[in-house]
Specification:
single chain, alpha+beta, Protein Transport Mog1p, Chain A, seven-stranded antiparallel beta sheet, three-stranded antiparallel beta sheet, 28% helix
């Protein structure tokens, strides 16, 4: 008899809980991200003495000379970083002289560096570029949770070769970084379209 009462009580408790849970209002919350206030697009000229190149970059970014490459000194004095402090982003820009390196090797290395993103990428789109300033190159857009979604190289194929890659100081997440990637991608395209070799 005692077991029967315990069983009856258990059934009554479970039934009561199910009625209570059915009557509660549940509103699912949509996934969201922080609102980002983007600055107005304005550009200034990078044309420092001694550098073999010049270009326009955003006023909300700063150009910093790169002095180390994985703990070693950079290959030459013309490596720079373009920092976007508001977005924890950085474009790493490296410059190489064709002659010291074979042009084909530099292009092959650039494709290799981009393909290293393929473990996390669902797509890698490349597009040839030729600007009004006579600059040729290629722009890479990497889809997915890759460390860098936007990369490029610029060259005259005889003397100069410059490579750039945008990274964020954050865990790669294509959903949360998409809007910032798109915003800075416009700046990358502006950099490319205003880029020129000085000699």
């Amino acid at each position: 008899m005692l077991r029967l009462l315990q069983l009856f009580f258990l059934v009554l408790v479970v039934a009561s809980l199910s009625f209570v849970s059915c009557n509660s209002v549940y509103t699912p919350k949509p996934t969201g991200y922080y609102k980002i206030n983007f600055p107005e697009k304005k550009y200034k000229l990078f044309d420092q003495p001694g550098y073999p190149y010049a270009f326009e970059y955003p006023v909300y970014a700063k150009v910093v000379k790169d002095s180390t490459f994985f703990g070693e000194a950079t290959e030459n004095d013309w490596w720079i970083n373009i920092d976007f402090p508001q977005f924890n982003g950085r474009i790493y820009v490296s410059y190489k002289e064709i002659g010291k390196y074979k042009f084909d090797s530099l292009v092959k290395h650039t494709f290799f560096m981009t393909s290293k993103q393929s473990a996390k990428a669902y797509s890698i789109d490349d597009s040839l570029m030729h600007t009004a300033n006579g600059i040729s190159g290629m722009f890479f857009t990497v889809g997915g949770d890759a460390a860098t979604a936007n990369q490029f190289f610029l060259t005259d194929s005889t003397k100069h070769f410059l490579r750039g890659a945008l990274y964020f100081d954050a865990t790669p997440n294509s959903d949360s970084l998409a809007i910032v990637n798109d915003f800075i991608k416009t700046d990358l395209k502006h950099l490319v379209n205003t880029f020129r070799w000085k000699n």
